[in-house]
Design goal:
This protein has about 550 residues and is of the alpha/beta class. The chain has 25 helices and 15 strands. It has a six-stranded parallel β-sheet with strand order 6-3-2-7-8-9, sandwiched between helices. A four-stranded mixed β-sheet has the order 1-5-4-13.
């Protein structure tokens, strides 16, 4: 079985024998309708999109509730479009991993076409403009990661690509948010139809973040006389261009070799994962957990798909904010980051294996249950205690989820302000930040991780991070084995409120973080000893 349209048509019986669910709609007709009247354009063509978002629309198509699919675009790694989308007729294979070892397999056919969001590709950019102009388009959505919205470095300076886009205007955008602003300009010029711009990324106030970045370009272009004020007014008017907030949750780890082997045993061909030139490790299939949550502010001025019939929660902004804070700042993401950096130091390669380690399991419980949960405001539509219980007892320990701490440790500098900083600020408001022990340990462990040596002082690979060079420069004077290191660089990092959302030196938390950090330098095995001390001190 090859993953292409001919195979779906010719091998339907074989797919059924292998318990692979096929699209229950005419894929060709769906694509024809979408090409003429597009309703949904999505940026970020990676695993969370193929393994969750695309399946939501597929559910509606299967039930006859929707007639059009999703157009996928990628603004970062164009190789994905050629090698994972075009090479497989825009189809993907979802493999849902249950804790009992059983799998759900489904061919994803809801993606109508895929494009490189590259202004240097004249044909692709012209098609994106054509889609953006269409009055039928209801939303552009995004899973481009937290760094996709960043315009400035930790010192407040605009990135070079942003400076370039500010000068060039709508004609040749490079940054993802400049691309969005450019497409909105073409929509504005073609009748100014309303639309929703929906971030589905794991970051606090994601709708606000993308709105600020898109508006930044619109305003600067106006200042540079590249657009009229009427365009800025259009983007700023949320009755015309809405930026709903959302919370998404589904663990979609790197493709695992055991899944590839299982698929090949079933008869699938050409399933091997590969690494792109931009270091994206991806495959024609997506392996992911079954639990999933998507909560979206119901703010769609041009209508929307009936995604509530596929399990999506539509609600108001305050409720989205509560669910997002519950998950991103307390009940999952902070636990993930704490396990990621500490797990790398202790030589782990699977989160599930970390949850078998009594010390790491205690760290996860302390970060989430003991320090995070008391500051959560319940969103009511999801119970925080039940959510975190599912995370700690079912999701993270699932041995069939091949999620790696090394993957989760990617871009940690872009995450700590959200995953730890929000809880820290909640404690600051009641002057109780000195009570925190597990979160300070996790921050110290991240600094220790940045030294590039594990707990046995063996060199380890550090996951990519846009701030890695700057952070390692700040830590360059630190040496393993030092009993009295120069901590000026550490304090430079901890005092950066752009990084953590608050100044950890000014609020007094740096004292404990530095203490943990210095202890972890002392000798081989010191990370483990310090971890045990930290979790043992929490009542």
């Amino acid at each position: 079985m090859k993953l292409n349209l001919d195979s779906l048509k010719n091998n339907e019986v074989l797919y059924k024998e292998k318990n692979v669910k096929l699209p229950q709609f005419d894929v060709k007709k769906m694509r024809e309708k979408t090409a003429v009247n597009p309703t949904w354009l999505h940026f970020g063509a990676g695993n969370i999109f193929r393994g969750y978002i695309a399946l939501l629309q597929q559910s509606l198509l299967d039930e006859g509730i929707a007639e059009t699919g999703i157009i996928a675009a990628d603004s970062f790694d164009y190789e994905i479009i050629d090698c994972v989308y075009h090479a497989y007729d825009e189809l993907s294979l979802f493999v849902g991993l249950k804790p009992d070892g059983n799998c759900e397999k489904q061919v994803v056919g809801s993606i109508s076409e895929s494009l490189k969001a590259d202004s240097g590709d004249a044909k692709a950019f012209a098609r994106l403009i054509e889609i953006a102009k269409a009055p039928s388009l209801q939303m552009m959505s995004f899973t481009i990661t937290e760094k996709g919205y960043q315009l400035f470095d930790m010192k407040g300076n605009a990135f070079p690509v942003v400076v370039e886009d500010e000068k060039n205007g709508i004609e040749n955008p490079k940054h993802a948010c400049a691309m969005v602003a450019s497409l909105l300009y073409h929509r504005f010029e073609n009748g100014a139809a309303p639309i929703a711009i929906v971030s589905m990324d794991n970051c606090s106030h994601n709708g606000e973040k993308i709105r600020e970045s898109v508006l930044h370009f619109a305003k600067v272009w106006r200042e540079n006389s590249l657009v009229d004020q009427a365009f800025v007014d259009y983007v700023a008017d949320e009755t015309k261009v809405a930026f709903p907030w959302s919370m998404i949750d589904k663990i979609t780890p790197r493709p695992d070799a055991s899944i590839q082997k299982s698929l090949e045993e079933d008869g699938f061909e050409d399933m091997a994962p590969f690494t792109t030139g931009k270091n994206t490790f991806i495959a024609p299939y997506v392996n992911a957990e079954i639990p999933q949550y998507l909560v979206i502010e119901d703010k769609f001025p041009n209508g929307r798909p009936a995604l509530e019939k596929a399990g999506v929660y539509f609600t108001d902004r305050d409720t989205v904010n509560c669910t997002e804070r519950m998950k991103v700042t307390t009940c999952l993401n902070p636990i993930h980051t704490a396990l990621a950096v500490t797990g790398c130091l202790l030589g782990y390669h699977k989160i599930a294996d970390e949850m078998k380690d009594a010390d790491l399991k205690a760290l996860a419980e302390c970060v989430g249950m003991k320090e995070g949960l008391p500051m959560v405001v319940s969103p009511k539509i999801i119970d925080p205690a039940a959510f975190i219980k599912e995370v700690l007892e079912e999701r993270l320990p699932n041995p069939f989820i091949p999620d790696m701490p090394q993957r989760i440790a990617t871009d940690t500098s872009q995450k700590v302000g959200i995953r730890f900083g929000e809880t820290i600020k909640a404690y600051e408001k009641v002057n109780r930040q000195q009570e925190l022990k597990a979160i300070p340990f996790a921050i110290a462990a991240w600094l220790r991780y940045l030294l590039g040596k594990d707990d046995n002082w063996v060199t380890m690979e550090i996951s990519s991070d846009p701030m890695l060079e700057v952070l390692q420069k700040d830590l360059s004077t630190i040496k393993l084995g030092e009993s009295n290191p120069n901590l000026d660089g550490v304090r430079e990092i901890l005092s950066n409120d752009k990084l953590f959302g608050t100044n950890l030196v000014a609020n007094g938390m740096s004292t404990l973080i530095e203490e943990y950090f210095v202890k972890m330098l002392a000798k081989e095995g010191a990370v483990r000893e310090t971890l045990q001390e930290a979790v043992g001190s929490i009542q």
